[in-house]
């Protein structure tokens, strides 16, 4: 099976970035997608009447263009949610973020956290060259080691010292002493989170937000790119199909792309091998109970509890679970640094047990659905060699007319809105450099 194809610009992957590139390029590109549906990591799955996204998704974009695009995809039918967020530490439920809601924790712990916070403020924060130092400088030793250090091991699967800081942006709130003291002494609630409200489609799960981008896209399903000949500008797919291109736009995970390049220079392969990410097992549960959720989501700081974070998809839309039921999605991360070390069945069993232990599920509750999804590419890991390795690979690819977009294409911690903007930017760049979006019609 072989073809020269219809368009000189070929796209790999029908996730948000690939669909966005296509849409902003007037759909003058063929998209080849290895899966059987569009949406990438933003897909939503209907399982026995429950809708589960591929990891907890909601939109907290501040970008007016993306807000309009998402709303337009579903005729404005979304829920605006002001999330209730909790934290689990020991046997305590703590409001979010913990650093400004210490009240209720053991007194000795609160005192130590505050004393170390004051010390850190007095010492002044230098320019922390790793995440661990950044945490201790900003929160004090006791708080840092009791909360974010533990969470980092569970979510990022590495020690905080192994990570850089450039991914943090506004994701973690660093309070001042007055905020810490108020949160430790008073019952008033200080919700200082980078997410104050989120949007979620009324029906169809998060994926519905992408309908506007998908409309008109020429997606070929079941086409997994297996090899690229950069000299001949030819792609060979696993199903035997061959396709020539002038420009290749890729949202395929960067290390996978490099592995597939025929005669790729050894130093590029080595750089690509240094790129790291976490993987995730999603534990999706359906429970026959109406008032299941105590929050929209919560974080878990107990090391003996397997998941690091638990969401309640049924709280985002009543259409995410059948009447009289609620749903839970728990996240268990692993990586080459911290192997899972157990079967998916064991992850499922242990997570259910954990949910019973912390009181989210009652022993008598009827669990009507219990499934796991194992996802290889979850969060891009910002370790010390991340930047230079990524830059070297992206530069090499561009010299060979391969442009990478999106979270795994660019190998960056991008949310769906940023992945969409990444595809849009490339379409504009190619148009500006002379590729016409109507020439090929
Ligand atoms: C646990 C988790 C929670 C998240 N929560 C949120 C959230 O709340 N809000 C938010 O905005 N964002 C969230 N995100 C981020 C969001 O999922 C991503 O930003 C977005 O999906 C990235 O889109 P993309 O097109 O770059 O990549 P992808 O969505 O991964 O799309 C890439 C596509 O390429 C295809 N592909 C891969 N390899 C090949 C190949 N060899 N050949 C052909 N096709 C291939 C894939 O099947 C996929 O369809 C979350 C991500 C995770 C992991």
TrEMBL record:
MF term (GO), any: UDP-galactopyranose mutase activity
Residues annotated as domain Amine oxidase: 195-430
Pfam families: Amino_oxidase, NAD_binding_8
Domain of life: Bacteria
Cellular component GO terms held in the UniProt record: cytosol
SUPFAM superfamilies: FAD/NAD(P)-binding domain
Stored PANTHER family: UDP-GALACTOPYRANOSE MUTASE
UniProt-recorded name of the protein: Amine oxidase domain-containing protein
């Amino acid at each position: 099976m072989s073809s020269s194809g219809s368009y000189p610009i070929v796209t790999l992957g029908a996730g948000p970035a690939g669909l966005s590139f296509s849409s902003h390029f007037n759909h003058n590109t063929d998209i080849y997608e290895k899966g059987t549906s569009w949406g990438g990591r933003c897909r939503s799955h209907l399982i026995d009447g429950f809708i589960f996204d591929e990891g907890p998704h909601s939109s907290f974009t501040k970008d007016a263009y993306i807000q309009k695009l998402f709303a337009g995809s579903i005729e404005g039918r979304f829920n605006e949610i002001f999330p209730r967020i909790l934290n689990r530490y020991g046997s305590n439920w703590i409001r979010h973020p913990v650093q400004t809601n210490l009240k209720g924790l053991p007194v000795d712990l609160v005192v130590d956290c505050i004393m170390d916070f004051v010390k850190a403020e007095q010492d002044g924060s230098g320019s922390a060259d790793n995440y661990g130092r950044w945490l201790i400088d900003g929160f004090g030793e006791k708080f840092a080691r009791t909360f974010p250090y533990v969470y980092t091991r569970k979510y990022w699967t590495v020690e905080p010292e192994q990570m850089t800081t450039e991914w943090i942006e506004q994701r973690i709130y660093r309070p001042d002493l007055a905020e810490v003291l108020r949160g430790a002494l008073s019952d008033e609630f200080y919700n200082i989170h980078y997410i104050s409200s989120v949007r979620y489609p009324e029906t169809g799960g998060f994926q519905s937000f992408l309908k506007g981008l998908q409309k008109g896209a020429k997606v070929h399903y079941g086409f997994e790119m297996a090899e690229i000949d950069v000299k001949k500008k030819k792609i060979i797919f696993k199903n035997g199909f061959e396709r020539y291109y002038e420009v290749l736009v890729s949202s395929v995970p960067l290390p996978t792309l490099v592995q597939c390049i025929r005669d790729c220079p050894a130093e590029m392969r080595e750089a690509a091998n240094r790129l790291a990410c976490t993987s995730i097992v999603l534990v999706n549960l359906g429970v026959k109970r109406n008032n299941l959720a105590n929050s929209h989501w919560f974080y878990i700081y107990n090391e003996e509890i397997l998941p690091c974070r638990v969401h309640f998809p049924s709280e985002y839309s009543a259409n995410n679970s059948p009447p009289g039921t609620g749903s839970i999605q728990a996240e268990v991360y692993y990586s080459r640094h911290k192997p899972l070390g157990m079967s998916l069945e064991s992850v499922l069993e242990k997570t259910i047990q954990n949910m019973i232990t912390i009181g989210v599920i009652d022993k008598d509750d009827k669990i009507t659905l219990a499934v796991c999804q194992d996802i290889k590419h979850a969060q891009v890991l910002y370790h010390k060699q991340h930047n230079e390795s990524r830059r070297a690979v992206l530069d090499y690819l561009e010299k060979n007319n391969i442009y990478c977009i999106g979270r795994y294409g660019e190998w960056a911690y991008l949310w769906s809105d940023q992945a969409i903007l990444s595809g849009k930017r490339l379409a504009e760049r190619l148009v500006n450099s002379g590729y016409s979006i109507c020439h090929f019609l």
